[in-house]
Amino acid sequence: MEKKKQIISKYFFAFICIISGAIIEYLKVGRDFLGFSSVGTWLIYIGFVMLAVISLQAISNKKRIVDERMKLLAFKASRITFVLVIFAAFVIMIIDGIKTITIPYSLFMSYLIAYLMLVYVIAYKIIERYN
């Protein structure tokens, strides 16, 4: 019963994001937000992504056993990812100082997120293998 309440509350929050995005879009508040044409379209997009993720989580009935070893591996992988993100930010600042980076912000953010996920997965797999 508790899991059902969690799922309903997650769906409720996703619908709130979609509805508030539609209201903001209707009122024409905010322009050019994170690569989207407005804040309202961004909220609508995030709401639909949340609905997709929540639905996938609700459909999946796989029981996961998380022990201390897995938590330790995740912590170490997160620490390595954080250090590499700081290093990448430093390198990007140096490159931007030498030659201005002219890619759109939304494309830059998508590359950054893909980089974060890739670094985390690689770090986790390496630590898992040698730990």
Describe what this molecule looks like in 3D:
- There is one protein chain.
- The chain has four helices and no strands.
- The chain starts with a helix and ends with a helix.
- The longest helix has 31 residues, at 68-98.
- It has helices spanning 2-27, 39-59, 68-98, 105-130.
- It is flat and about 50 Å long.
- The protein is 79% helix and 0% strand.
- Helix 3 packs across helix 4.
- It is mainly α.
- The protein has two domains: 2-59; 68-130.
- The mean pLDDT is 82.
Which key terms come to mind for this protein?
131 residues; 2 domains; 79% helix; flat; mainly alpha; single chain
Mean pLDDT: 82
Helix content: over 70%
Rg (C-alpha, Å): 19 Å
Number of domains: 2
Regions with pLDDT < 50 over 5+ consecutive residues?
none
The biggest beta sheet is recorded as: none
Shape annotation: flat
Distance between the termini: 38 Å
Series of secondary-structure elements, N-terminal to C-terminal: HHHH
Structural class, by secondary structure, is: mainly alpha
DSSP summary, beta strand count:
0
Number of helical stretches of at least 4 residues = 4
Q: Report the sheet-strand fraction.
A: under 5%
Secondary-structure topology with pairs:
Blueprint: H1 2-27, H2 39-59, H3 68-98, H4 105-130
Helix pairs in contact: 1-2, 3-4
